[in-house]
Amino acid sequence: LWGNGTIRILTGFLTLYVAFVAKSTEHDAIKQAAMLGLVGAAAGIGNFAGNATGARLKLGRPSIVVLRCTIAVTAVTVIAAFAHSMLMAAIVALVASCTSALAKVSLDASIQDDLPAESIASGFGRSETVLQLSWVLGGAMGVLLPTKLWIGFTVVSVVLALGLAQTIATHLGRSLLPGIGGNRPVHAKQEVPEVNSRIAR
Fold it and tell me: Looking at the whole model, is its pTM more than 0.70?
């Protein structure tokens, strides 16, 4: 979930930030639309590729897939901070949308495999809430940050690096935030309240 949330921050950021960057340029409306179309097309292709790959991928260890996806988006975003071009932004959108789809498939597989049947619906609900909030956080960054590409991508790179660090720490059974993440059982057990347990007896 940490890895997916980190990736969603980037997708939310790109969705709004690229539009503001294109609008701030001195190009005419057609060129601005072309810039948005380039990034949008890259995101669409990446999403299709990610879903197609996820549907055919055997997810023996979905946590490894999520970790690798988080590393990939962080790395390409750092590169974009130095390249500061719309072409590189399109490449970031391609990688982000592809890894977002792959990571989401892996998260869904983890929820279905690791949670008891009674908790699966709750697990999906909570995970979707976290992912939507992460997207909103990224979108807010896209609105508030300056439209200079190197500034925007540098700031979001720092946020992604922190998310990646927490993802790696959680994967290793630790956490950068005390009480959040860290060592968890491989398979969760259903928690039965004591009152219900006594009634059942």
Answer: yes
Q: What is the dihedral of CA 159, 165, 167, 173, to 10 degrees?
A: -150
Mutual angle of helices 149-171 and 2-24, in 10-degree steps: 180
* Amino acid identity at 135: W
The answer to whether 5 and 163 are in contact (CB under 8 A) is yes
Cα 1 to chain centroid distance, Å, stands at 9
Q: Which residue has the tokens 């639309």?
A: 33
* Cβ 77 vs Cβ 92: under 8 Å: yes
Dihedral pair phi/psi, residue 177, rounded to 5°:
-115, 110
Concatenating the DSSP letter of every residue in 149-182 gives HHHHHHHHHHHHHHHHHHHHHHHTT--SBTTBSS
Q: Would you give the DSSP letter of residue 191? A: P
pLDDT computed for residue 110 by the predictor? 82
Residue 151, number of CB atoms within 10 A of its CB: 13
Query: Phi, psi at residue 180, to the nearest 5°?
Result: -125, 120
Letter for the amino acid at 95?
A: V
pLDDT exceeds cutoff 90 at 19? no
Which strand (E) or helix (H) includes residue 142? helix 120-144
Token pair in block for residue 16: 């709004």
Q: Looking up tokens 């597989």, which residue turns up? A: 109
